Amino acid sequence: MVRNEGRRRELADAGLAVLARDGARGLTHRAVDTEAGVPAGTTSNYFRSRQALIGGLFTRIGERLAPDPDVHAGLAARPPSRELFADYVRDIVTRLTAERDVTLALFELRLEAARRPELRETVGEWLRAGFAGDVEFNRSAGLPGGPAEIALFHYAIDGLLLDRLTTSIDAGTPTDEVVDRLVDGLLPTVVTPR
């Protein structure tokens, strides 16, 4: 049977909406069918198991959170600097907050991986691959900071996103200002990439 890739993406988007709204325990084939408005059994035709569904969700998360090539072309045209690094971080935070359901779904998958060993490796591999890609991007772009600094930014951005997408401790401070403070605090003036 030939799979309709558009339908596959629609089902994955419905799965992300279910995760964001109901959490990982609410993620079932039937719930995705209902969310997508498709006949019962459709999701299981595209994703045979829960593990396959979760794999499809990770693929879709990557697609939906991918950088805009035009934005990145403009950033890449600038010389490397702390300010450029801050603008890349700002772009990441903007994409993650604009795709609220996708980011909340990703947090849900991470929480579920803490409870379910069979999911832990899938989530861990996906996160580590993303981190390695970020470190390599930073190095190849000539931006300040090495793996240790990139890890610190991951930790800080995760906390910032959790704050901005749930209940904030300081909603009055603009997100761009928080990003600037993170860069100032976590990225020394001169950092040699490691």
How many structural units, i.e. domains? 2
Number of H- or I-type helical stretches: 10
Outline the low-pLDDT stretches.
none
SS elements, strand count: 0
The CATH homology group name of the largest domain:
Tetracycline Repressor, domain 2
Strand percentage lies at under 5%
Please tell me the CATH architecture of the largest domain by its name. Orthogonal Bundle
- Radius of gyration, rounded? 18 Å
* Alpha-beta content class: mainly alpha
Describe this protein's structure:
There is one protein chain. The chain has 2 domains: 5-61, Arc Repressor Mutant, subunit A; 67-186, Orthogonal Bundle (Tetracycline Repressor, domain 2), CATH 1.10.357. The chain contains 10 helices and no strands. The protein has helices at residues 5-22, 29-36, 42-46, 50-65, 69-76, 82-98, 100-115, 117-140, 147-165, 175-186. The longest helix has 24 residues, at 117-140. The protein starts with a helix and ends in an 8-residue tail after the last helix.
Task: Summarize it.
Residues 28-47 bind DNA. It comes from Pseudonocardia humida. With 194 residues, the chain is an all-alpha fold.
List the topology elements.
Layout: H1 5-22, H2 29-36, H3 42-46, H4 50-65, H5 69-76, H6 82-98, H7 100-115, H8 117-140, H9 147-165, H10 175-186
Helix pairs in contact: 1-2, 1-4, 1-7, 4-7, 6-9, 6-10, 7-8, 8-9, 9-10
Task: Give the key terms.
elongated; mainly alpha; Arc Repressor Mutant, subunit A; Tetracycline Repressor, domain 2
